From TrEMBL:
<keyword id="KW-0486">Methionine biosynthesis</keyword>
<keyword id="KW-0560">Oxidoreductase</keyword>
<keyword id="KW-0511">Multifunctional enzyme</keyword>
<dbReference type="InterPro" id="IPR000672">
    <property type="entry name" value="THF_DH/CycHdrlase"/>
</dbReference>
<dbReference type="GO" id="GO:0009086">
    <property type="term" value="P:methionine biosynthetic process"/>
</dbReference>
<dbReference type="GO" id="GO:0004477">
    <property type="term" value="F:methenyltetrahydrofolate cyclohydrolase activity"/>
</dbReference>
<keyword id="KW-0554">One-carbon metabolism</keyword>
<dbReference type="InterPro" id="IPR020630">
    <property type="entry name" value="THF_DH/CycHdrlase_cat_dom"/>
</dbReference>
<keyword id="KW-0658">Purine biosynthesis</keyword>
<feature type="binding site">
    <location>
        <begin position="163"/>
        <end position="165"/>
    </location>
    <ligand>
        <name>NADP(+)</name>
    </ligand>
</feature>
<comment type="function">
    <text>Catalyzes the oxidation of 5,10-methylenetetrahydrofolate to 5,10-methenyltetrahydrofolate and then the hydrolysis of 5,10-methenyltetrahydrofolate to 10-formyltetrahydrofolate.</text>
</comment>
<feature type="domain" description="Tetrahydrofolate dehydrogenase/cyclohydrolase NAD(P)-binding">
    <location>
        <begin position="137"/>
        <end position="279"/>
    </location>
</feature>
<protein>
    <recommendedName>
        <fullName>Bifunctional protein FolD</fullName>
        <ecNumber>1.5.1.5</ecNumber>
        <ecNumber>3.5.4.9</ecNumber>
    </recommendedName>
</protein>
<dbReference type="GO" id="GO:0004488">
    <property type="term" value="F:methylenetetrahydrofolate dehydrogenase (NADP+) activity"/>
</dbReference>
<keyword id="KW-0368">Histidine biosynthesis</keyword>
<comment type="pathway">
    <text>One-carbon metabolism; tetrahydrofolate interconversion.</text>
</comment>
<keyword id="KW-0378">Hydrolase</keyword>
Length: 283
């Protein structure tokens, strides 16, 4: 299988964002992303650092609000409310997962839909379902860009999404549908899952299990998008797909690392730019 270069595509997307941000600055508009991080989750620390770096590359101001693990839900909601009504904040994101004593649903619902650059609020999810303009969730949006970058038409293809989470599987299915693919969503209760996966011209693996997709499950010539980020005992990152096992197959695959994760971050920059433009009536 040939690799789809997520690093190159992310760089291209960020360069386009940077050019637009520069033009916006000329009009006196400076986009800003605020990330709220509660607690000390080590993976979250890494992701948040990556986002700050991307912002710097794009000329987007960034601010990280670090709150202790002991933060109450009410305190977090109050911090969100301050950013919702701060006109200098274009995009607002609360890093997940949150400590167990905080209700994730309540927190997401508190974010202003006009600043919801993750595309996680019910308003944006609803807009996505009915095909209105909205903030697309970054990971699925990045997956679509990776698929489009292959130059292969998505229309009419059989797409299989492995996983049905609110942040990846479900919105991914909707975005593929919007591209006129024929979409099947598989999950832990799917009967004879391997035979369903084998039908896929386009396979999006977002099940969160290291190398769950074995070579016998992948159709010859398929486009495979690997959303998995599983840390192995050896400290290395593994996707949901056994990529080395697919070496002799025709088709294309996004690597882990170097694929979907980088595009997730690039799409966050796209959304933050879009938020700033909309808030200034420029979109
Ligand atoms: N509100 C919220 N929004 C998110 O978008 C969000 C979140 N919470 N919580 C956690 C997940 C995970 N996530 C990733 C982002 C970038 C990489 C990434 O850049 N990965 C690199 C390498 C990373 C490494 O080496 O550790 C790559 O795949 O090449 C991975 C994962 C965003 N998430």
């Amino acid at each position: 299988m040939e690799r789809i270069d997520g690093k190159a595509l992310a760089a291209k997307v960020k360069a386009q964002v940077a050019a637009e941000v520069e033009a916006l600055r000329g009009q006196g508009v400076v986009p800003k992303l605020t990330v709220i991080l509660v607690g000390e989750d080590p993976a979250s620390q890494v992701y948040v650092g990556g986002k700050a770096k991307d912002c710097a590359q794009c000329g987007i101001d960034s601010e990280v609000l670090r709150l202790p693990d002991s933060t109450t839900e009410a305190q977090l909601l109050a911090e969100i409310a301050v950013r919702n009504s701060d006109p200098t904040v274009s995009g607002l994101l609360v890093q997940l997962p949150l400590p167990r004593h905080i209700n994730e649903k309540k927190v997401i619902e508190a974010i202003s839909p006009e600043k919801d650059v993750d595309g996680f609020t019910p308003v944006n999810v609803g807009r996505l379902v009915i095909g209105e303009d909205c903030f697309l969730p970054c990971t699925p949006a990045g997956c679509i860009e990776l698929l489009k970058a292959t130059g292969e038409p998505l229309e009419g293809k059989r797409a299989v999404v492995l996983g049905r989470s609110n942040i990846v599987g479900k919105p991914m299915a909707l975005l593929l549908l919007r591209e006129n693919a024929t979409v099947t969503v598989c999950h832990s209760r799917t009967r004879d899952l391997p035979s369903v996966v084998r039908e896929a011209d386009i396979l999006v693996a977002a099940i969160g299990k290291k190398r769950f997709v074995t070579p016998d499950m992948v159709k010859e010539g398929a486009l495979v998008v690997d959303v998995g980020i599983n840390r192995g005992e050896d400290g290395k990152l593994y996707g949901d797909v056994d990529e080395p096992g697919l070496a002799d197959k025709a088709g294309r695959i996004t690597p882990v690392p170097g694929g979907v994760g980088l595009m997730t971050r690039a799409m966050l920059m796209v959304n933050t730019l879009k938020a700033a433009k909309r808030q200034h009536g420029l979109d």
